[in-house]
Write a structure and sequence with these properties.
Blueprint: E1 6-9, E2 16-21, E3 29-34, E4 40-46, E5 51-55, E6 62-70, E7 75-82
Antiparallel strand pairs: 1-2, 2-5, 3-4, 3-6, 6-7
Length: 83
């Protein structure tokens, strides 16, 4: 996966996070949050945004992957620590 095409604030996080994207993926994307066992615990599709706030208060503490599937076929992934 290509790194650093989006940033996660804060990380580690507890109740909500904000993702900030490079302009190169603002055309739209599908987002998945995946737990350490590989289960998709949250997903959504977004159009035309460079910032996205996500409520994560329902996630149990642990390590997650945030996976972004862009309209042009890129897969971006970063780790998120939930406290």
């Amino acid at each position: 996966p290509v790194q650093n095409q989006f940033k996660i604030y804060p990380n580690p996080a507890k109740n909500r996070i904000q993702l900030v994207f490079d302009s190169s993926i603002k055309k739209g994307f599908h987002l998945r949050i995946i737990d350490a066992q590989g289960k998709v615990v949250q997903e959504q599709t977004q159009l035309n945004t460079t910032k996205l706030k996500i409520d994560i208060h329902h996630l149990v503490a642990g390590l997650y992957s945030i996976v972004i599937l862009t309209k042009d076929g890129q897969v971006l992934e970063q780790k998120l620590i939930v406290r």
